[in-house]
Amino acid sequence: MVATGRRAALDELGLEHVDLRPTDGWLAHDSTMRTAHHDIFVAGDATGRFQILHLANQEGTVAGHNAAGGEPSKRMDYRLKMNVIFTDPPYASVGMTSRELEADVAQGRHVVASSVRLPQTGRAITMGAEHGLWKLFADGKTGEVLGSAIVGPRADDLIHLISTLMYYRAAVSDISQMPWYHPTLAEVMLNLERELADLMPGLEKAPPPPA
Ligand SMILES: Cc1cc2nc3c(=O)[nH]c(=O)nc-3n(C[C@H](O)[C@H](O)[C@H](O)COP(=O)(O)OP(=O)(O)OC[C@H]3O[C@@H](n4cnc5c(N)ncnc54)[C@H](O)[C@@H]3O)c2cc1C
After folding, report:
1. Hey, is 120 helix, strand or coil?
2. 148 and 171: one domain?
3. Tell me, what CATH number does 61's domain have?
4. Pocket test for ligand 1, best of 12, 13, 53 (most atoms within 8 A of CB)
5. Which residues are catalytic?
6. 142 CA → ligand 1 middle, Å
7. What is the pTM of this model?
């Protein structure tokens, strides 16, 4: 159904009476979710952007706040946008994508990336996982976690570890300060951190996992 595409049901709302013309079936808006009409706000699928529930909820909160004249006004921030594809194994990502990072690097930003093959890690071995890769991206100067992509067992849940770190604008070095139960898929975060620390001299390195 995602591949086929969906359109918002805007036809019968009488938008033409307020001179609001959808572009390609979607309503253009600014970061406060205000449309071209000063008093009309939009959220969710009608924005034509991501068509994902958690972003529709976030946009709805921003639109509702601003429509009610809330001060200061809120702006939509897509920094924590997540994507999950419920394949087997699942795929999940949050924050910047590899492609966005490449574009940033091309413009001179110092971004570092690490990746770990899940079948080579403890818990994945006990689960018999044959496939899986976890990537982590961070700002090479500040160490701030910028994004992640995972394909492998429980990727849909594991990605929330990264979105939590990103919500609090945590740095890669914070990962090594936190406890991680062994053996879990989550503790792979330590492997990812160690690889990034090698690329960012000065960051504290996580101790190696037990043999
Ligand atoms: C089959 C399917 C599976 C999905 N799976 C996922 C998923 O796994 N994860 C995920 O994040 N997202 C998923 N989505 C997408 C997600 O459901 C939508 O992005 C999200 O619901 C958009 O929220 P919304 O408020 O814009 O629209 P909706 O949730 O569709 O709400 C719009 C509401 O407006 C009502 N309405 C429409 N026209 C009028 C009218 N003229 N007057 C009054 N009421 C009206 C509708 O009845 C509906 O209740 C899926 C969507 C589909 C169709």
Report:
1. helix
2. yes
3. 3.50.50.60
4. 53
5. 182
6. 39
7. 0.89
Note whether residue 185 is domain-resident.
yes
Tokens found for residue 162: 């990264």
CA nearest neighbour of 29 among 39, 42, 12? 42
Read off the pLDDT of residues 131-184 as tens digits, 9 standing for 90 and up. 999 999 999 999 999 999 999 999 999 999 999 999 999 999 999 999 999 999
Q: Is residue 1 part of a domain?
A: no
- 146 and 188 assigned to the same domain: yes
Same domain membership, residue 177 and residue 127: yes
Can you give the residue range of the structural domain that contains 21? Answer: 11-67
Q: Are 93 and 195 contained in the same domain? A: yes
- State how beta strands 111-117 and 133-139 pair: antiparallel
Give, in order, the Cα–Cα distances in Å from 33 to each of 43, 94, 128, 153: 7, 22, 46, 36
Report the atom number in ligand 1 closest to the C-alpha of 13: 41
Of ligand 1's listed atoms, the one at least distance from the Cα of 53 is 11
Q: What is the pLDDT of residue 205?
A: 60
Would you say residue 6 lies in a domain?
no
